[in-house]
Amino acid sequence: MMSTNSTAEFVDITEQARKVVKVAEIDEGILYLFNPHTTAGLTINEGCDPAVRHDLLGLFQLLISTSYPCCHAEGNSPAHALATLTGSSVTVIITKGELQLGTWQHIFFCEYDGPRNRKVFWKVLAG
């Protein structure tokens, strides 16, 4: 369980992912992450410069208009559309017990309808 703090934000969950892999004690395999929420997503992107997260959120919000007259009664249709852009899962290869992320890559939980309490499901598969 995690709590988000803003209406829209990218939460870096890379260290939690590394801990999950370490606890699993496998040398080779994959880590599969799944987000069961329809107004949030998961993505892998640049994690060293926080400005990239800021820019991505801004660009996404330019793509998805909040002024469109949506039919969904809850009023959060833009959050559903944003979640579609990032998707609900990511998979990362594990080699020698380590996540195989690029130099600048981090794993992010993408909140689009917060703040809320959220879940991410983790599955480590050896192989």
UniProtKB/TrEMBL annotation:
Signal peptide: none annotated. PROSITE patterns: UPF0047. It comes from Candidatus Electronema aureum. Belongs to the UPF0047 family. Pfam families: YjbQ. It comes from the Bacteria. PANTHER family: UNCHARACTERIZED PROTEIN YJBQ-RELATED (PTHR30615), UPF0047 PROTEIN C4A8.02C (PTHR30615:SF8). This is Secondary thiamine-phosphate synthase enzyme.
